[in-house]
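Need the bound structure for magnesium ion, inputs here:
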Amino acid sequence: MSAAKRKKKSTALTNGPSETLDTELSELESETSVEELEEAAVAASALIAQVVAEAKAERKVSLPEPSAPPFIDFDKVSIAFNGRKVLDKVSFHVGRGQTLCILGRSGVGKSVSLRILLGFLKPDSGRISVDGQEISTLNERDMQEIRKHVTMVFQNGALFDSLTVGENIAFPLREKGGLAEDQIEQLVTRLLELVGASETVSLLPSSLSTGQRRCIAIARALAAQPEAILYDEPTTMVDPIMGRNIGDLIQRLKLQLGITSIVVTHDMRFAIRLADLVLFLEGGEARFFGPLDEFLHCPDPHVQQFLTLDEYNPPRPLAVADQLPGQ
Ligand SMILES: Nc1ncnc2c1ncn2[C@@H]1O[C@H](COP(=O)(O)OP(=O)(O)OP(=O)(O)O)[C@@H](O)[C@H]1O
Ligand SMILES: [Mg+2]
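Answer from helper R.:
Posting the output first, comments after.
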C-alpha cells in the first residue's frame, strides 16, 4: 500500500464506520488499478499453493478413526524356523493411505513379515487380513489375487532383462487385458512421468542404475493399480540423492494416489520423513508399534538404544600416529 493510501486509511479509521466504508470504496475506485488487483490475485494464489504444499509436506495425515477397519492387519502372528522363533505374536495394523515403517536390526524378521503378508511364507499361528479378508488360510491361486492389490517392490527391481523399460511397465497392463495399444502407451508415459524417469523408456534394465531400476519397479508395480505397496530396504545401495527421490516418490504416491505403504528400512532419516506408524521388531517381539512421534520419544531402553546407535557419527580424523609415512 502506498504512503498516500496508508495515510487515507488511518484517517478513515478514526472516523465512523460508514465514513470508513465510503473512504475505502472511493479509494478502490480512484486508486486501485486492474493491474494491481491482478497482481494481488496472483500473489494470493501463489501463497495458497505454498501453504497447501507446506501442509502436504508436513504430512500430518490423521490416523484412521479407531473404529475404521485397518487395511492391513497382523494379529498375534508367529513363525519359527528350525525351532527358533523369529516372530512371536507380532501384531500391527496399517490404515488405508498410511505409511508404516518396519525398523529393527538385521535378522529380526522384517523381510519375513513382508513375505508372510504376500503369502510366500505361512505363519505358524495368528491371523492376517487385507481389507477385512483373512488371507493366512488362502491357497496360492487366491493369494495371487491378493497380490494384485498388495504388491512388492523388490530391491533389484525384479525387471525382465530382455524387455525395455517401457515394455516392462506395459507388461502388467497387457497381462490385465482390455486396453488398446495406444492406451497402454499413454499409461506407460504417464507412469514414467510420475516416477521421474521418462528418459529411460527405451533403455534395457541392464543400462540403469540401481536407483533408476527401483523407480521403474515402482512404476511397474503401479501399472497393476495396487492399493498397497511393500518396499524392502528401498534406499540400500543408492546414493543419498536417489534415496531422497525414492522417498519423495513414496510420499507422492501416498498423497496423490492414496497408496498404503509398508517400508522396511534401516534408515532412520528416511523413516522420519515417511512414517505415520512405526513397528520396531526385536527379539521376535513387536517392541513398539504406534505413531512415529511416540516412537521417537519412547522410553523403552531397546528403542532408545536403536535410536542412539542410528545417530550419525562423523568419521574421526586419523590420529597422527595412524597416518602412513609421507602423508
Ligand atoms: N525360509 C527361511 N528358512 C529358514 N530361516 C529363515 C527363512 N527366512 C528367514 N529365515 C531366518 O529368519 C530370520 C529373520 O530373517 P529376515 O530376512 O526377516 O531378517 P531381516 O530383519 O529382514 O534382516 P535384514 O535387515 O538383514 O534384512 C533370519 O535369522 C533368517 O535366517
Ligand atoms: Mg531383510
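Comments: The beta strands are 72-81, 84-94, 99-103, 125-130, 133-134, 150-153, 228-232, 260-264, 277-282, 285-291. The mean pLDDT is 81.
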